[in-house]
């Protein structure tokens, strides 16, 4: 029975990773707007913020965290979805880089708070 449950779990996991749809620019824009609303960013704050990925800014970091979670690239119980990240950021040609960038945290606990440094790592 345990083997059947394990096999079914593996099939569901593989199916969910294979079923991941790469997000488009429109999806990014929709997610960005969703996160602006979620984080209650005013028009004035939006206009005055440097939205560069490498900006040292709490709001930018919060937006990255929100978008990563919104895209389904991170799960609180398992951490980063490596295969989804590989698929989203360029396919097999970037697998080694993605794997290096999203290695488990030293304490082994997944945390979306690390998403900023990991996305910056992948973008470099």
UniProtKB/TrEMBL annotation:
It comes from Pseudolycoriella hygida. Gene3D superfamilies: Pheromone/general odorant binding protein domain. Pfam families: PBP_GOBP. Belongs to the PBP/GOBP family. It comes from the Eukaryota. Residues 1-16 form the signal peptide. It is found in: Secreted. The keyword Transmembrane does not apply. One of its GO terms (cellular component) is extracellular region. One of its GO terms (molecular function) is odorant binding. SUPFAM superfamilies: Insect pheromone/odorant-binding proteins. This is General odorant-binding protein 99b. Keywords: Secreted, Signal.
